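Board notes, transcribed. Complex of a protein with zinc ion.
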Amino acid sequence: MVNSYYYNGNQYVPRDPNNGYMGYIAASLASGMILGAMPAFSKPFSKQLVKEHSQNHLYKDAFESSIKNSGLAAKGVNIVPAQLLGGMSDEACGLNAYYQPSTRKIVINTDKISIAGFHEAGHAMNDITGKFGKFLSKLRWPGRYAAGLLGTLALFARPKPKDAPRNGLDVVRDNAGKLAFACMLPTVFEEGMASYKGIKLAKASGLAKPLINNMKKLYAKALLTYIGHASLTGLAVGAAGIIMDKFTRPKKVETDDFLLFG
Ligand SMILES: [Zn+2]
């Protein structure tokens, strides 16, 4: 066997650098395909959100007054009607809302998706009154960056034989998929908490039960989006790692087989 070497009593063949390129391409394709399933998880949410445009009037007043009645307004939280900001297409303007912690603004199209406003108010409560919620929200962006970094790390070649001792970086790389999933979890929990608090606010605002139930459905679909995002990220990173392992890990030469059966 040309260029083979012994490690720990086993014979290994180093891999051709071309295997690394092929692995990189295969891993990128597999990750891309997995991440391509993302819209399937967010579709139920965006579909219902568009439907909500027609019954916005049922939620609008309750949402606006709940910001005052909950004490959030006194703490500096204010609603910025996204429809008045400009720079956004009419369609995009009715599909998204967000809370900005630095300015305590809830940016939302109050002419279309007031139903989503309670959830954003829940984010404001996490930020202002909830210690655990605030802690989780602070992990949101670092978590995303870390997951991205793990994805990059998973795409590196594996130069060590399988039974070689592992250092810290090897352990991280071997578990990159699981760790990437874990990095996304604080966001999933914070989103769930925001919805939970939002529903409580809506109940306190006196919204009728059928409206609350409809809201719960929408919020469950929103959470599904985040759960899907976290799971697919973990799977994509994990798949990249498995593929790179297959393409680049030095191959063990199974001499025992020859001894037994040869
Ligand atoms: Zn949210």
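The chain has a mean pLDDT of 91. Residues 209-248 form the longest helix (40 residues).
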